[in-house]
Write a structure and sequence with these properties.
heterodimer, A: 115 residues, mainly beta, four-stranded antiparallel beta sheet, B: 110 residues, 0% helix
């Protein structure tokens, strides 16, 4: 399996607290992504990165920030957690070359509950 | 209209049945297409890429119709272990973000 790990796997936090989720890869892939998955909405892109210090917003970026200071790490921060951010968060990596997109590989997910 | 749409399901089929899933996409510039499988409370995993000429991997066959902006997945001789949600995935171009369909749930019954 591809080397991509997410931490923590589960977290319960209180409304208003900051939370950081970590995604670590050992594949040296250029692209990294954060998605959230909720019933009725499917997978929705939060932020993505196409290289160190190169990040951009996705479909549902409000209330989230990201950082990528090294190729292997992509951090997602909930600046002030709200109950609407209770979700399962997936990190994904991908690579492309010579005009060909290879599929995403996902991490195992982080189940976040905001109480 | 959503960028990627799928039959909502659920599809409940007996073991050994053949089942087909459909997916339509709205962006005519889409270049790469995939089917992912997601088990309950697990991460999505790549099932197969979809090529213009169609492709087969064992019991699974994927087809692409660019003119109709339509992708299909056919599963023959269904197994209990095929029970999962199947996600259609589309990306516009090189290095672009993938757009996921909402998924179709399949239950294969003994």
């Amino acid at each position: 399996d591809a080397g991509i790990t997410q931490s923590p796997r589960h977290k319960v936090t209180e409304t208003g607290t900051p939370v950081t989720l970590r995604c670590h890869q050992t594949e040296n892939h250029r692209y990294m992504y954060w998605y959230r998955q909720d019933p009725g909405h499917g997978l929705r892109l939060i932020h993505y990165s196409y290289g160190v210090k190169d990040t951009d917003k996705g479909e549902v970026s409000d209330g989230y920030s990201v950082s990528r200071s090294k190729t292997e790490d992509f951090l997602l921060t909930l600046e002030s957690a709200t109950s609407s951010q209770t979700s399962v968060y997936f990190c994904a990596i991908s690579e492309s070359s010579r005009g060909h997109n290879y599929g995403y590989t996902f991490g195992s997910g982080t189940r976040l509950t905001v109480v | 209209r959503k960028e990627v749409e799928q039959d909502p399901g659920p599809f409940n089929v007996p073991e050994g049945a053949t089942v087909a899933f459909n997916c339509t996409y709205s962006n005519s510039a889409s270049q790469s297409f995939f089917w992912y499988r997601q088990d309950c409370r697990k991460e999505p995993k790549l099932l197969m890429s979809v090529y213009s000429s169609g492709n087969e991997d064992g019991r699974f066959t994927a087809q692409l119709n660019r003119a109709s902006q339509y992708i299909s997945l056919l599963i023959r001789d269904s197994k209990l272990s095929d029970s999962a949600t199947y996600l259609c995935v589309v990306t516009a171009s090189y290095g672009q973000n993938f757009v996921f369909g909402p998924g179709t749930r399949l239950s294969v019954l003994p």
